[in-house]
Write a structure and sequence with these properties.
- The protein contains four helices and 16 strands.
- It has two domains: 79 residues, Probable inorganic polyphosphate/atp-NAD kinase, domain 1 (Rossmann fold); 133 residues, Tumour Suppressor Smad4 (Sandwich), CATH 2.60.200.
- The strands form three sheets. The protein has a six-stranded antiparallel beta sheet with strand order 5-4-15-12-7-8, with no helix packed on it. The chain has a six-stranded antiparallel beta sheet with strand order 11-10-9-6-13-14, with no helix packed on it.
- A hairpin with a 2-residue loop joins strand 7 and strand 8.
- It is mainly β and 221 residues long.
Length: 221
Amino acid sequence: MVVALGGDGFLLQLLHGMLNQGRTLPVFGMNRGTVGFLMNEFRAEGLADRLRNAKSFRLHPLKMDARTISGEHVVSPAINEVSLLRETRQTAKLEISIDGRVRMSELTCDGVLVATPAGSTAYNLSANGPILPLSSDLLALTPISPFRPRRWRGALIPAAAQVTFRMLEAGKRPVSAVADQREVRDVAEVTVSSDRQVGLDLLFDPEYALDDRIVMEQFLT
C-alpha cells in the first residue's frame, strides 16, 4: 500500500500516476495540505495499527474521450469530474446526449460537468450540484452558470450511462475539457463514461470514513 502525505490535489496526482503506470495500490492519505477531504488526519503515532484497521473504499474513475476541432483524440481518466468550460467571453453552446439519445438540443452556459460520488463534494458542489452518497450508482450532470434553459439545474444519471457533449459553434465559441487536472482545449465532442474495469482503493480510519464524510457534508451550514 501507499501512504500519501499532502492534500487532495496531491492524492489525485498520485492516483493518476498509478493509472498511467497500469498498477494500482491501496492508498492511505494523511492531510498535509489545505482541504484534505479525501485524506485522513495526520498523525505519525500508531500508523501501523491505523493501516491494519483502515476501511477500504473502491472508486471507479470516469473516462473522458475528447476530440478536438483539429482532429486530435485524447482519452484521460477522471476521479472527481470531467468539466467543460468556455475559453472566451462568449458562452458555450452544447448539445447533450445520453446513451445516444439527444436529451438537450442546446444548453447555453459557462460550462457543464459530470461528477462521480467521490467528486460530488468538490467542483460539483460549488456549482450547486447534488451530493451523491458513495454507495449510489449515479453520476451528477451539473451545469455551470446556465443561461438557457435558465432554470435547468442538472440531472442525476445512472453510472452506466454514456454522456456525449457536442459543441455547437465550436470555432466561434471554443470550449476546453478538463479531466481532473488534464485540460484539452478547443474540443468538438466529448464523451464521458464510468470505467468499471478500473478500481482505485482508498483507505480511511473507520471513525472518519469517506462515506460518512460525504453524508456529513449534506448537514453543514
